[in-house]
Structure formats: structure tokens, C-alpha cells
Amino acid sequence: MTDETLDTLRAFQARMDRMPSRRAELIAEAREAGHTWQQIGDALGMSHAGAMKAARTK
């Protein structure tokens, strides 16, 4: 691996580390817009209970 490859890998990991928080933010926005837990779960490819759990992941 080159240094550039490692830098790219580090940047990718940093984005991945932020994903649960960002997903929770987007779920909150969807709820504020009036979407149901089932609709949100469907959009995420999970159950409504999974969406509720994902909303608590920050």
C-alpha cells in the first residue's frame, strides 16, 4: 500500500465512524417530518424496531 492508499483508507474509516450518528440525525428529521417508524424502517431495509434502535445510536 502506498501512503496515499493509507490516507484514503483512514478518510474512509472516519466517514464510517460518523455513519451511526448521521443515520440517527436523518431518522430524527424523518420523524419530525411525520414519517412513521415503519416507513423509516422500510427506507433503511430494517424493521420498525430496528429503526427505533438505530435512532438511539449516537
Give a short summary of the structure.
With 58 residues, the chain is mainly alpha-helical. 81% of the residues lie in helices and 0% in strands.
Radius of gyration: 15 Å
Strand content: under 5%
Q: What is the count of β-strands?
A: 0
> Which structural class best describes the helix and strand composition?
mainly alpha
Mean pLDDT reading: 94
What percentage of residues falls in helices of 4 or more residues?
Answer: over 70%
Your description of this structure?
The protein has 58 residues and is an all-alpha fold. Helices cover 81% and strands 0% of the residues. Helix 1 packs across helix 3 and helix 2 packs across helix 3. The chain is elongated. The relative contact order is 0.15. The model has no long low-confidence stretch (mean pLDDT 94).
Topology at a glance:
Elements: H1 3-32, H2 37-44, H3 48-56
Helix pairs in contact: 1-3, 2-3
Quickly list its features.
mainly alpha; 3 helices
